[in-house]
Amino acid sequence: MAKIGFIGLGNMGAPMARNLIAAGHQVQVFDLNQHVVSQLAEEGARACKNANDVAEGANFVISMLPAAKHVQSLYLGDDGLINHLGDDTIVIDCSTIDAASAKSLGEALMDKGIAFVDAPVSGGVAGAAAGTLTFIVGGAQEHFEAVEPILQNMGKNIFHAGAIGAGQVAKICNNMLLSILMAGTSEALQMGINHGLDPKILSEIMLNSSGRNWTLELYNPCPGVIDSVPSSNQYQPGFMVDLMAKDLGLALEAAQNSGSATPLGALSKNLYTLLQNQGAGAKDFSAIFTLFEKK
Amino acid sequence: MAKIGFIGLGNMGAPMARNLIAAGHQVQVFDLNQHVVSQLAEEGARACKNANDVAEGANFVISMLPAAKHVQSLYLGDDGLINHLGDDTIVIDCSTIDAASAKSLGEALMDKGIAFVDAPVSGGVAGAAAGTLTFIVGGAQEHFEAVEPILQNMGKNIFHAGAIGAGQVAKICNNMLLSILMAGTSEALQMGINHGLDPKILSEIMLNSSGRNWTLELYNPCPGVIDSVPSSNQYQPGFMVDLMAKDLGLALEAAQNSGSATPLGALSKNLYTLLQNQGAGAKDFSAIFTLFEKK
Amino acid sequence: MAKIGFIGLGNMGAPMARNLIAAGHQVQVFDLNQHVVSQLAEEGARACKNANDVAEGANFVISMLPAAKHVQSLYLGDDGLINHLGDDTIVIDCSTIDAASAKSLGEALMDKGIAFVDAPVSGGVAGAAAGTLTFIVGGAQEHFEAVEPILQNMGKNIFHAGAIGAGQVAKICNNMLLSILMAGTSEALQMGINHGLDPKILSEIMLNSSGRNWTLELYNPCPGVIDSVPSSNQYQPGFMVDLMAKDLGLALEAAQNSGSATPLGALSKNLYTLLQNQGAGAKDFSAIFTLFEKK
Amino acid sequence: MAKIGFIGLGNMGAPMARNLIAAGHQVQVFDLNQHVVSQLAEEGARACKNANDVAEGANFVISMLPAAKHVQSLYLGDDGLINHLGDDTIVIDCSTIDAASAKSLGEALMDKGIAFVDAPVSGGVAGAAAGTLTFIVGGAQEHFEAVEPILQNMGKNIFHAGAIGAGQVAKICNNMLLSILMAGTSEALQMGINHGLDPKILSEIMLNSSGRNWTLELYNPCPGVIDSVPSSNQYQPGFMVDLMAKDLGLALEAAQNSGSATPLGALSKNLYTLLQNQGAGAKDFSAIFTLFEKK
Q: What is the pLDDT along chain A (295 residues), one digit of tens a residue?
């Protein structure tokens, strides 16, 4: 069993930390929200007084924060965590941030002899609670092997995408593609409906043909085709439009930085922005289906 | 066993007719190309002298032609087939044409008491030869039930999409979505490659995540990820860029006629046109991957 | 002065015919709407009993109809006008239709020795009333020279675009570009507004820079920048969204027929379809500005 | 006459500084390139030993640098210029950078009581040499009035776009719109050409119709329509594809930061990226016309 520092106990971080406690690790936690720190202390964690305190004797330090600026500030800010980490600690950043920031953080840590992997997740709050997250890891092979058993306590699929930063790149490639699948499937279903087809039948046909994709299988955007998905529940999230728009922002930044042409991803981003501007930011991302409806 | 008239013995039609002969039906065939008519006669079909001759005593008449104008001319032209079909013949048009033309042909036939289904196929030349085509059928329930056993001699999956024309609509919805999957997957893979990721690993990650789709599963557009698909064989088709562009033309016509917004489908169409204009029309449609390459 | 047959007395056709009467020509008119025929008879036209009657002794026959099917039916239908036109009549079709239909009509007429030009207009109802329309003419040089003085009685700018059909092509190229200018200008203004800029000042800057275009000059889509344009009058048309969408449909058909890549035109078309599907089809086409608003 | 510090003597900065010298100002210059500093010293400037030296007694300090990181480093880096500027100096940053960076620089300077305007330019190297640049200024009214006479020594049109940062926003709105005009005009011309129209005639028609825009007037992308523009000279720049792509990157960042939907701008950006990936980055930005050509 390991000693694990955990910083960032939000909707995702708290249940992830709980799963580490449940697996028998010695977990020491910090968050600006004292309430959630106390809660986790009651559940078996050690409450830390500040961020740097989580580094104390830790084999692993895990961070799960909202954006790159928080991650940078935590590790590289004035009196940052970088100055408090031991040589044999491995840092695992599970935040979803841009690849360039992940790389520069990794380089800064490696310069001081501290191992680093970026390990963004997918699977949402439900996956965090159930311990079924997907982790997409960037970092050296030996570090991947070292962190894999820890991540398995919180997730089901653990992928090694490549060098430092590759976890972020792979996640953002996947989510950009997901937005295209969702918007494209929505377009196709609406065109069928406009011609009088039954969306259940059309979905069934495409699911068994070359139009098959994850959204048709598990997350149909048309209300009533699959029970128990957000579209059949007034588009209650699930994965919010605002979060998909944030990920698409990271994707376009990654495209820009690498000179990649992503015309469908860029269009998809703008369709999601139109949806946000109609006030649907807090709905599930499958609500893109409604953008194509005849009102 | 049935008596079946078959018109249109091209790359698709000839092997389809062969499968009907092999199943034991009495098949009578016509094509403007006398050579292929003779060939099929040697294989057991009755050679007809003209198109109208195929109607003679037929339980079913099947047509497999390149475009709507050929279908219209065949059935509704001067001294068209409509005047030679018996009351108890069921017409099965397997051509891929626009839904509006399919509907108006169906109406013209029904007005004369002749049953009609549109039944476009997918699966390509290989599927036609192997008898594993997918048929997407539009027409009345009783007519679907009547034609289903015949279509099973030529295909594996037989779907009933709805009323007359619905087969064409469903096929075109599927193929529009397929073009989006292919182009979107290509973009995502290229962006990963531009960041130094291995496309095999990135494909594997997305295939096991929410980016999963038919192209990643069975038809990866990046050379070397899946052996034996067109991308690993210099983009030898397969399903040609020119044919995908034709189907996308039908899709946009269907969108226009129904007031459907299909921004990703329209963009995908234009990316395929850019590819055609670079001289790649005869390559496999997965060659859209090369459009996003850094030269 | 000439003897001129005129068919199609709608919002555009009626004032055009009036301007011909006012110029002193002998005008003989027909429309399915008897009321407007009677009105024009009171204003000096000869009322015709049917479409073919307008051909009687005419130097020119002008048609102004809603769509290609009406034009084809008029000239080439059963007992069509083609059978009643004299050898020395010049046919001027002012309808906005697809180029392929214009060409095939022109060929059918030329085969019978009848001269033809396509001459679609821009300038709207106001321009028709004021006699300030723009005519974009396709046809032989000698026919252009023959019709030019007649068109000058109804318009201000008379362009010769090329051979038969070229008038339609040039008009549709222009209107596709116009939709791009309008949507692009709207995007740019909204982005400025979202950053706190005054749209009047931003418009003034872009009008004097390389962003200058017809919409900024004469038809600003942002309410309050230019008085007396539709955007400053609740987007009362003007040129309706539905009509722009129709023209964009013709443009994409022209792109399809010629293998032209028009990605921005196709996207613009789909943005206009989204606007229609929100119920704004009867507003002025500058209302595309509202699609980009934060609600 | 004023004492003016000038930092950044590249293709744009050097001729701008020359025009200030020619106008009789006392100009003190710095650049990392010693050669150009010596040149300007021979032409009447005072050569500074380092960046901070240009602040010495200056009424105005002007910077003209390639990107935000250079600007930030110059003013706000270790021992940055901010520590060497007098209270009565007005800082004029003419670099094209993102609005957020301009705002935060402005705030940092204002906090120390130093006046700031952002004043990005358009007009290119030719305009810099001729003293005919356009300046788009963001800052307080009194500071605009103070810098206007100085900018008039280097340019012809001096606009006041709004508060600090507004100059960058307005420029980027304009250049995003320009890219849309250029790509849209190219599409429309190619579609006309594909139908057999003469691009000179089609350009003339659209220039006199509602398709009129700056590119048709002054910078036609089709070779041979306007002499002496880049398209008629093998697309020698002019304004490079790479620079337009950079500006479009800033535009999309500005869209992202403000939640603006810019679907045409985003598509235009990706078309320019496709062009870069074909190896055309160093050509003039009107070369987007060639992307739509049939090869």
A: 999 999 999 999 999 999 999 999 999 999 999 999 999 999 999 999 999 999 999 999 999 999 999 999 999 999 999 999 999 999 999 999 999 999 999 999 999 999 999 999 998 889 999 999 999 999 999 999 999 999 999 999 999 999 999 999 999 999 999 999 999 999 999 999 999 999 999 999 999 999 999 999 999 999 999 999 999 999 999 899 999 999 999 999 999 999 999 999 999 999 999 999 999 999 999 999 999 999 8
Count the neighbouring beta carbons within 10 Å of the beta carbon of residue A59: 17
CA angle, residues C185, C188, C190, in degrees to nearest 5: 105
Mean pLDDT value across chain C = 97
Distance CA A219, CA A197 (A): 19
Which chain B residues touch A295 with a CB distance below 8 Å?
none
Smallest CA-to-CA distance from A230 within A282, A173, A157 is with: A282
Token representation of residue D45? 């400037």
In a shared domain, residues D24 and D143: yes
Place of tokens 């006459």: D1
CB distance C96 to C168 below 8 Å: yes
Flag if C187 and D198 touch (Cβ within 8 Å).
no
Q: Which residue of A162, A187, A267 is in closest CB contact with B197?
A: A162
Q: Is the dihedral of CA B92, B95, B99, B105 positive or negative?
A: negative
> What is the rounded end-to-end Cα distance, in angstroms, of chain D?
57
Q: State which amino acid sits at residue C195.
A: H
Selecting among A103, A171, A269, A283, the annotated active-site residue is A171
pLDDT in tens, D100-150: 999 999 999 999 999 999 999 998 889 999 999 999 999 999 999 999 999
What tokens were used for D154? 């280097």
Give the predicted TM-score (pTM) of the model. 0.96
> Exposed (0-12), middle (13-18) or buried (19+): which is B156, by Cβ within 10 Å?
middle
Same domain, B35 and B11: yes
**Does the CB of A194 have a partner CB in chain C at under 8 Å?**
no
The helix (run of H) or strand (run of E) holding residue B152 is helix B141-152
Over the stretch B69-119, which tens digit does the pLDDT of each residue have?
999 999 999 999 999 999 999 999 999 999 999 999 999 999 999 999 999
Token look-up 């139109």 returns A274
Q: Count CB neighbours of C78 within 10 A.
A: 6
CATH of residue C22's domain is 3.40.50.720
Tokens for A151?
């991540």
Domain that residue C102 falls in: 3-163
To the query of whether residue C171 is one of the catalytic residues in this protein, the response is yes
H/E stretch holding C244: helix C241-258
Measured distance CA(D289)–CA(D287) in Å, rounded:
5
On whether both B121 and B243 belong to a single domain, the answer is no
In chain D, the number of structural domains is: 2
User: What ipTM score was computed for the predicted complex, to two decimals?
Assistant: 0.95
Per CB-CB distance under 8 Å, the chain C contacts of A292 are 274, 277
Residues linked to residue C61 through DSSP beta bridges, in sequence order: C5, C91
- One domain, residues D130 and D177: no
To 5 degrees, how large is the angle CA B29–CA B35–CA B36?
A: 45
